[in-house]
Write a structure and sequence with these properties.
Length: 437
């Protein structure tokens, strides 16, 4: 039986294919082809196994910009068709647009055409510049690599990345979304397709933009990842934007692109007067880390917030930073006297915190956690009074959050459980703090 059984995660390879000219300018370390999915259970079943083939390969390629798909299923031997032999192409085809290509020549022609015709649709909301992986590997522009923000987009070694905001009304976007949504199934545990009938969905799509050597002044675009966002309307006219799905494709992961996409969405939320809050639906652990890290960096670089939080002279002592972290900082020094005590306590001034939470449009529980993390970063563990106040503040939140479970326990058990949870939370906060150092 094992000989005829193949892991669907291993059999399926994904490629993002660029036009020949754009491929030629890539370095060896830049590979956008032949990577694997993390999950295929939504397609091939819980076991992620395909039965009935030997030497099975499922070659799923996408034109790197337009994401036009090409599918080719190959094998060295196949059992006679029975109900137990899987229909590899038939099964996968239910999850991709029906007009996928199976003719390689037609696909490669589409890829070449992409080079001159494909442009992202929607509204440009954010762009940033990175040193190209080739230049970084060759040690060019080392200084620029360390201070990405200062790299000029016109620099020959620069690659620009752009984030576009779209809705279903964006021309051509419905078709585009049908091509990219497969990545949600392949990379997000528990991910599923969103309902196209719901009109309100919004999206933020991230592209790499490369200059074309042969035609100065022109660029090609390559898909990096995206996020889907759902606005919940609240009476009378405010909106909570819920980040629902978020994916950066494997060749682009762990290079800071997820952080840029998240920041782009957050800044979009700040710029929209009707949106009051950014919330996140059921975040995966890796995404929680990304969110915590970016939210903390934002707070630490906010001079007014930090000076109010920890006292007016915090900044002059560099105290807004945790272990020396923090960007150049936001401008503005508002109304804090030199001797003003910090509002963080502990315990934190709740009214003050709630005003900042609203201003910064961060969801309630997330903001409470961020405040707790920041307080912990300043606490002297051997000073008993603030330690006690901190423990009570955190435990009060934990108690409310876990009320149903805790209320069923005996008092002594409850206290023990709360203390244990508190210790775990502090440990996790220390881990998060070490990520922003
Ligand atoms: C609500 C939801 O949808 S939850 C589901 C989230 N999505 C998924 O799980 C799908 C699969 N995973 C992914 O799509 C991605 O891995 C994400 C979204 C989780 C993270 O995106 P990434 O682009 O990899 O994140 P980013 O690069 O910004 O940060 C990740 C790491 O890269 C590091 N990093 C940041 N900037 C750079 C840089 N310039 N160069 C190198 N590494 C960097 C960070 O330190 C971080 O490392 P750490 O995780 O060890 O602390």
């Amino acid at each position: 039986m094992a000989a005829w059984t193949t892991s669907s995660n291993e059999a399926l390879t994904i490629s993002l294919v660029r036009p020949t000219e754009d491929k030629a300018s890539l370095g060896e370390e830049e590979s956008y082809e032949n990577f694997h999915p993390t999950f295929t259970y939504p397609i091939y079943g819980e076991e992620e196994k395909i039965y009935g083939y030997e030497g099975l390969t499922i070659d799923l390629r996408f034109a790197s910009g337009s994401l036009v798909p090409y599918l080719s299923v190959n094998y060295s031997a196949k059992l006679p068709s029975t109900s137990t032999v899987d229909d590899v192409e038939g099964t996968l085809s239910q999850f991709i647009p029906s007009d996928y290509l199976t003719d390689e020549t037609a696909f490669l022609a589409q890829v070449e055409q992409d080079g001159t015709t494909f442009k992202p649709s929607g509204q440009l909301i954010h762009s940033y510049v990175r040193l190209s992986p080739l230049a970084a590997a060759n040690g060019k522009g080392k200084a620029a690599a360390n201070t990405q923000q200062t790299l000029d987009s016109e620099d020959a070694n620069a690659v620009v990345y752009e984030v576009y905001h779209t809705t279903w009304d964006t021309p051509g976007f419905r078709e585009y979304h049908r091509r990219m949504q497969l990545f949600i199934l392949l990379y997000i545990e528990g991910g599923s397709y969103i309902n196209e009938e719901e009109d309100s969905w919004e999206f933020a799509v991230l592209y790499e933009k490369r200059k074309r050597q042969s035609t100065p002044g022109t660029s090609t675009y390559h898909f990096v990842g995206y996020s889907s966002l759902y606005p919940f309307f609240h009476f009378p006219e405010s909106v909570r934007l819920r980040l629902s799905q978020f994916v950066i494709l494997p060749p682009y992961q762990r290079q800071g692109h997820g952080s840029e996409l998240y920041d782009a969405i957050y800044n979009y939320v700040l710029s929209q007067p009707t949106i009051t809050e950014l919330t996140v639906e059921d975040p995966a652990e890796a995404f929680e880390d990304l969110r915590d890290r970016n939210d903390l960096k934002m707070l630490l670089s906010h001079e007014v917030f930090i000076s109010e939080a920890f006292g007016a002279d915090t900044l002059s002592h560099g105290g807004g930073r945790v272990g020396g972290v923090g960007r150049a900082g936001r401008s503005g020094k508002g109304g804090v006297s030199k001797s003003a005590p910090g509002k963080m306590g502990p315990p934190v001034d709740k009214l003050w915190a709630e005003n900042w939470r609203k201003k910064l449009k961060i969801a309630g529980r997330q903001f409470q956690r961020l405040i707790e993390i920041l307080i912990l970063s300043k606490l002297d563990p051997i000073d008993p009074r603030p330690m006690r106040a901190y423990r009570l503040q955190v435990k009060e939140r934990l108690y409310r959050f876990n009320f149903e479970t805790l209320a069923q326990l005996e008092k002594s058990e409850r206290l023990e459980k709360l203390e244990e949870t508190f210790q775990n939370v502090c440990e996790d906060y220390q881990r998060i703090l070490s990520m922003v150092q």
